[in-house]
Design a protein that fits this description.
homodimer; alpha/beta
């Protein structure tokens, strides 16, 4: 008897059954935004609630990839299925193909319980966070117990991916100089656990102190930083009684990894078992939905108003109209009701 | 006779007359989004067409701030009025107050023809790019011949600020290791001129080669990176016959600064005098308007649908509905016409 279900339903079922090739195919389809990709996401979404989404971020040079590698081993030792999404152009998980880095994690590619997908080779930044957060869905539905999302940077992209994570691990290392400041601005909004990697190097304790100082400074986010954007407010929802722990480790030698895993587990339990944890989850879910909504709106607007937007841009460039009035005119054309 | 004009018109006129205190006040008002700030922006916008917006970006540790400092001197030597907006938390222009960096640029604060404003102290990242691009308007209307916007990072924020710039200078330096790769992903979309700072250090020529290689690789952006987002498409508009020059310099000693200035001037002329330059300007203006529009829409949506969005986020978190369907339902509630 022929299978009369829709192709997307068949494919989704294969993913749910743990078929790696089906998962890889679905990831490509979503990545390329082929017709029907939303249908696929819809089919898969209800089956994603068992995965723990773990964001891993930090400055370049902190050893994020080595640490990710070591974490994969830890999760595999517990017999968990692991998904890895690498959005970090410096990661050997993804950068190898471009710049000749060796892929140290070759062994994981031969482990059928580890699925690795890189998003760093498309060359454009704008859509990265969106693709990455979309890909969490199929990887979770495939049955990953944990999905590691490795990102780099201090920008909006990283923040958006962090909102999709349950737990965010920020990796620091001694001797990165200014980097700690660069990362600082973004850290207070998203760090749940800190790892000070390369803890055998001089300056590790100073790095720990730096982080403690940052945490002390950031404990009371100023109201001015919260005032403007609801997305920011949601992302900043005070984390109740969770104080981000700082774990020293040497990922290349596996030192401190067990301790790190315990701290990550503790954050997961806090999320699942306390009212403050539930509040953090809800806050991030809210911020995440908001950004999905903004992306959907942008698509919709472009499809509807492409010529009008182009004409408005020309007039702004010629100083015939200011951008704020131009935007109001454009909104008028697509939004229901009085403004 | 009492002045019967609106307060915003009076304030705008003082800014246009070159009043630094009025400018500082307007910047605060815009930064804090006080009632009437859009009115102010509207008053000022028609008077902004004489300023050259120069974005300065690159990895932490490349010496951006020292180079910015040296550029300010160059522009002052030509008797140009200079505005500086620092969105880089590692910059002494902005980070000093938090982490005790010395403000090397103290002298500029005493020069009435140099206006410096930091945006790095608010602690949140999400709204930074928006505030920065909004502040370009009053600084330009104040009569700045050039507005330097100093940013850091590889994320969406930086990309957004770059779209508001006429010319983007990317600062690199030898020995930053992985940083060049971290910056790489964002560079091809926005670099008009490269400076290899600290060119007296070993490895400067290797850094120049790295950049040349990147440029060669990036000369033909893959179609897949262009397909998804119109904003990305606009930002990627091929730059015609402009090949980003690479200038070696030692900003601390002022070496190479004259050459750098000439290359920046050349890009400005290219923008103003060639069809390809006009095309680049138009492309960035389009991308910039689009992001202003998205921000305005997000504000509007939040104001209208706050409770509905919160409820939808709760249902998504509970897996009662998938985020894609939730977004479609929400769009249905606010957009005119069929979807």
């Amino acid at each position: 008897m022929p299978d009369t279900r829709r192709p997307s339903a068949v494919l989704a079922e294969r993913v749910r059954a743990g078929d790696v090739r089906a998962l890889a195919r679905v990831c490509r389809m979503i990545d390329d935004r082929v017709k029907g990709y939303r249908e696929l996401l819809r089919e898969l979404f209800p089956h994603t609630n068992k995965a723990w989404i773990l964001g891993i971020t930090g400055a370049p040079g902190a050893g994020k990839s080595t640490l990710t590698d070591a974490l994969i081993r830890q999760f595999r030792a517990r017999d968990e299925r692991v998904g890895v999404l690498a959005v970090d152009p410096t990661s050997p998980f993804s950068g190898g193909a471009i710049l000749g880095d060796r892929i140290r994690m070759q062994q994981h590619f031969e482990d059928s319980q580890v699925f690795i997908r890189s998003l760093a080779t498309r060359g454009a930044l704008g859509g990265l966070s969106r693709s990455a957060t979309d890909l969490i869905c199929p990887v979770a539905a495939w049955g990953a117990g944990v999905v590691l999302v490795e990102t780099v940077g201090v920008g909006q992209d990283e923040l958006e991916i962090t909102r999709a994570a349950h737990t965010t691990l920020v990796v620091m290392a001694p001797g990165l100089g200014d980097d700690i400041q660069a990362v600082k601005a973004g850290i207070m909004e998203c760090a749940d656990v800190f790892a000070v990697n390369k803890a055998d190097l001089a300056g590790a304790d100073a790095t720990v102190s730096d982080i403690e100082q940052m945490l002390a400074l950031g404990a009371r986010p100023s109201t001015s930083s919260l005032r403007h954007s609801a997305a920011t407010v949601a992302a900043n929802t005070p984390a109740g009684h969770w104080v981000p722990p700082i774990v020293k480790c040497v990922a290349t030698r596996g030192e401190g990894m067990h301790d790190l895993l315990q701290k990550l587990d503790a954050h997961r339990r806090w999320l699942e078992q306390t009212p403050e944890g539930a509040q953090q989850r809800a806050g991030r879910a809210h911020a995440h939905l908001l950004q999905t909504l903004q992306a959907a709106l942008a698509d919709e607007l472009l499809a509807r108003l492409e010529p009008e937007i182009a004409e408005a841009a020309r007039r702004v460039e010629a100083r015939e109209i200011d951008p704020y009035s131009a935007c109001e005119d454009l909104l008028e054309k697509c939004l229901i009701g009085p403004r």
